[in-house]
Amino acid sequence: MVERKSPARKAPKAVRDTWGKVRAFALGMPGAVEEFPWGESVAKVNKKVFVFLGVEDGSWPLGVTVKLKDPEVHAHALSCPGAEPAGYGLGKAGWVRVPLEEKGAPGAELLCDWVEESYRVIAPKKLIAELDAQ
């Protein structure tokens, strides 16, 4: 279970920087848009969420939630410190929440790889072809 933080506490700068890089990467994917359902940032493609980015106001620990279909990649993500299957039944569909403030949390490059995999699971083939052409 994720502990709720005091809204006044911000994540360390390095963690916020990692989160910012992952957010920018996600929003740079073909057709990606940012929306704020439930008060948190999500990146969507074709009206479907491909990464939950959470909130940056310090009310919750920073983290990302991605859908990982590849069994090895899914297991690797779950082996990260504090990682867990996503709540609300999403974990059963391959969604993994990876906290960024844990010691030993993955870096931006690996997180971006996972965001891309999640995007590829959700995005239509036309946009995946556009991504591959870049």
Give me some keywords for this one:
single chain; 134 residues; alpha+beta; Aspartate Aminotransferase, domain 1; six-stranded antiparallel sheet; 20% strand; globular; DNA-binding; YjbR/MT2646/Rv2570-like; YjbR-like_sf; MmcQ/YjbR family DNA-binding protein; DNA binding
Please explain how this structure is put together.
- By secondary structure, this protein is an alpha+beta fold.
- The chain has a single domain, classed as Aspartate Aminotransferase, domain 1 (Alpha-Beta Complex), CATH 3.90.1150.
- The protein is 35% helix and 20% strand.
- The protein has helices at 13-27, 71-78, 108-122, 125-133, and strands spanning 33-35, 41-45, 48-54, 63-67, 84-85, 95-99.
- The chain has a six-stranded antiparallel sheet, covered by helices on one side.
- Strand 2 (41-45) and strand 3 (48-54) form a beta hairpin.
- Mean pLDDT is 91; it is low at 1-8.
- What is the CA-atom radius of gyration, in angstroms? 14 Å
Helices and strands, in order, run as: HEEEEHEEHH
Mean pLDDT, rounded to whole units? 91
Protein structure class? alpha+beta
Number of helices: 4
End-to-end separation:
39 Å
Stretches where pLDDT is under 50 for at least 5 consecutive residues are: 1-8
Strands, count:
6
Question: How much beta, percentage-wise?
Answer: 15-25%
What is the share of helical residues? 25-40%
CATH architecture, by name, is Alpha-Beta Complex
- Determine the CATH topology: Aspartate Aminotransferase, domain 1
- Our count of domains comes out at 1
Query: Major sheet, described briefly?
Result: 6 strands, antiparallel
Label the overall shape: globular
Strand order of the largest sheet: 1-2-3-4-6-5
CATH C-level class is: Alpha Beta
Keywords: DNA-binding
GO molecular function: DNA binding
Pfam family, one: YjbR
Protein name: MmcQ/YjbR family DNA-binding protein
